[in-house]
Amino acid sequence: MSEKKLVEEEVNFQKSDAFNLTMIPGAFARKMRTCVIWQFIRFLIINIKMIIVVGKSH
Amino acid sequence: MARLVVLGGGVAGHTTATFAAKWLGSQHEVVVVTPNAKWNWIPSNIWVGVGQMTKEEVTFDLAPVYAKAGITYHQAKAVSINPEGAESSDKPFVTIEYTSADKAGETETIEYDYLVNATGPKLNFGATPGLGEGSQLGEHTVSVCTADHAVHASEKLNEAIEKMKAGTRQKFLIGTGHGMCTCQGAAFEYIFNIEHELRKAGVRDMADMKWISNESFLGDFGMGGLHMKVGGYVVSSKLFAESLFAERGVDWLIGAHTSKVENGKVEYELLDGSTGEEEFDFAMLIPPFAGVGLKAYNKAGEDITDTVFAPNGFMKVDADYTPKPYAEWKASDWPRTYQNPTYKNMFAAGIAFAPPHIISKPMKSPNGTPINPTPPRTGMPSGIIGKAVAHSVCDLMTKGDSAHLHEASMAEMGAACVASAGKGVFDGTAAAMTVYPVVPDFEKYPGTGRDTDYTFGEIGLAGHWIKHILHYLFIYKAKLNPGWTLIPE
Ligand SMILES: Cc1cc2nc3c(=O)[nH]c(=O)nc-3n(C[C@H](O)[C@H](O)[C@H](O)COP(=O)(O)OP(=O)(O)OC[C@H]3O[C@@H](n4cnc5c(N)ncnc54)[C@H](O)[C@@H]3O)c2cc1C
C-alpha cells in the first residue's frame, strides 16, 4: 500500500484545535498571491476599488 | 491678520496646517507647535522594526518644509490652553514648552484666534506595570510606535535571530499590552513581518510565535470586525484573520488584558475571568493610548480641564457623549465638525478628539475588567478630518463666524488600509482592505452595518506594492513637493 504524499499546506490543521477549525489556503491560492502577472491585475483592481472608497470619503 | 495655532505635527496636524497655510496665503498666520524636529511616516515604522528600512527613510526634517509653506514652527510641546485668555487680556493662548536643544525647557505663551488640537496619543506605557513607562523604549518589551522605538526593536530582533541561528529556540509574543488598547493593526503587521523575516533567515522552525490581544475575536481590529464579499459569500474578517494565523503557524490568545509585564513573562486576565502567564524571549506589546495630558484654565486661572477634555484626556468635540448601552449606539453619536462645544474657536483632529464610545462590542471580565479594543483612528480618517477642520477654520477666518463648517463623520467615511504581512518586491504580501463606513451604521446598512460593495479585503503581493508606493507617496505629499494637494489623504 502506497502512503499518500504529504500535502504541505494542510499540515498546520493538525497543530492546534483553533487552527483545525479555520480555513487554510491551498497551494494554488498561495501561488497566486505572489504570481506577478495575476498580482499586477489585482493591483489595478484594488487601486480602482480604493480610489472609489477614497472618493466617497472626501 | 488672524492666527491659527495647530498643536501637533503628525498626520492630522500636518494636514491641517499645510492646507490652511495654502488656502490662507499670507493674509493670516499659521503656527505649528510640535515636539519633534522630524516628521515620521508611522506606518513604515513596522519595516524599520524588522530592519527593512532605516529611521532616515521614514522621517524628514520639518523646519524646511514649514519654512517653504510660510508656517511658523515651534519645536515645543503644548502644556496648557487658556481659551478665555487671562485676567489681563481676553485673547486666548496656549502655553508651550520648548523641546529643541537650544531652548529645551523654556516656556512661552502663544495667542491664537483659532486652535486645532492634533496632538495624537500619549503612548500610555504606565497603564500596565512593567510595560515601560519612563524608559522611552519599553522595559521588558519593545515597541514600534515611534521610529526610535522601531530601531531598538530591530536590534532586539537581530539578537533573537542570532540566538536561533546558534540553536536556541525563541518565543515571540506580539500584540496589545493592556485590555483597552487600540492599534491592533500595527501589531498584526509586526507579527507577520517578523514571521516573514524569520523564514528568510532560515530560522522559522526555531521560533514559537504567539499573538496576545484584547480583541474578543481575531480580526476585530477595534472596528467590531468587518464583513466582505468573497467567492459569493459575505464573510467575517474573523475567518480571514484566523486563516492567516493558522497558515503562518501563529498561535493566538484573545480577549486578554495584559495586567503585568516582567522580564520574559506577562500576566494576563481573560474575558472569562481566568488569569494566566505567558513567557517570551521577544515581545512587542502596543501600549494603550490616552490624551497627551493638556490642561485647560479659565480666565480666573481655575482648572477647566474636565470641561474641555474627556476623562481619557482626548478633547471633547461635537459628539454625543451621553452614556448609553451598546444596543442604543448610533452612527449619529459620532462627531461631524470636530468643534469643541464650549469654545467654538477650538477643534480637535485625528486621535486627539474624544470618541463618543468604542466601536467594538463592549466586554468585561466577571471581575469587572474592561477588555475591548478602543476605536482606531487610522491615517486616512485622521488626514480627512484634519483637512475638513482646516477648511472650516479657513472659512471662519475669511468669511466670519457664520461660515458653514465642513463635515467628516467617521460614520460616513471609509478607510483604505493596507496591512503588511512581509516586505519584498516579489515575495512580500499585504492585506489590502477597505471598509465603508469606518463606524458601522446599522440603520443604513442592516446586517453588517457596512456597505459590502465597498468593504473588501485580500492578501497578496499587490497589497505590498500598494503599501510600498504609499510610503513614497505620503512622504512626497508631506514634504509639499509639486502636486502634493492632488494626492488624497
Ligand atoms: C506602528 C504603527 C503603524 C501604523 N500603521 C498604520 C497604517 O498602516 N495605516 C494607517 O492608516 N494608520 C496606521 N497607523 C495609525 C496612524 O499612525 C495614526 O492613525 C495617525 O498617526 C494618527 O494621526 P494623528 O495626527 O492623530 O497623531 P500622530 O500622527 O501621532 O501625531 C500627533 C503629533 O502630535 C505631537 N504631540 C504630542 N504631544 C504634543 C503636545 N503636547 N503638543 C504639541 N504636539 C504634540 C506628536 O509629536 C505628533 O507629532 C499606525 C500606527 C502605528 C503606531
Q: Can you walk through the features of this model?
A:
With 58 residues, chain A is mostly helical. Helix content of chain A is 57%, strand content 0%. Chain B is built from ten helices and 24 strands. Chain B has helices at residues 11-24, 45-48, 55-58, 62-69, 147-165, 184-200, 237-247, 305-308, 379-399, 461-478, and strands at residues 3-7, 29-34, 38-40, 59-61, 72-82, 93-98, 107-111, 114-117, 122-123, 170-176, 207-212, 227-230, 233-236, 251-253, 256-262, 265-270, 275-279, 282-286, 289-290, 295-296, 346-348, 415-420, 430-435, 456-460. Classes of the chains: A mainly alpha (58), B alpha/beta (489). The interface between A and B is medium-sized, with 31 and 35 residues.
Poorly predicted runs of 5 or more residues of chain B: none
CATH topology of the domain at 3-123 and 289-399 in chain B: FAD/NAD(P)-binding domain
Radius of gyration of chain A: 18 Å
The CATH architecture classification of the domain at 3-123 and 289-399 in chain B is 3-Layer(bba) Sandwich
Give the count of structural domains of chain A: 1
CATH domain class name of the domain at 3-123 and 289-399 in chain B: Alpha Beta
Percent strand of chain A equals under 5%
Strand content of chain B: 15-25%
Question: Any idea what the shape of chain A is?
Answer: elongated
Associated small molecules: flavin-adenine dinucleotide
State the separation between the terminal residues of chain B, measured CA to CA: 29 Å
Helix fraction of chain A by DSSP (H/I, runs of at least 4): 55-70%
Rounded mean pLDDT of chain A is 92
Q: How many strand elements of chain B?
A: 24
Task: Find the count of extended strands of chain A (DSSP E, 2+ residues).
Answer: 0
Q: Approximately how much helix is present in the residues of chain B?
A: 10-25%
**What gross morphology of chain B would you assign?**
globular
Count every helix of chain A, treating DSSP H or I runs of 4 or more residues as helices. 3
Computed over alpha carbons, the radius of gyration of chain B is 22 Å
Structural class determined from secondary elements of chain B: alpha/beta
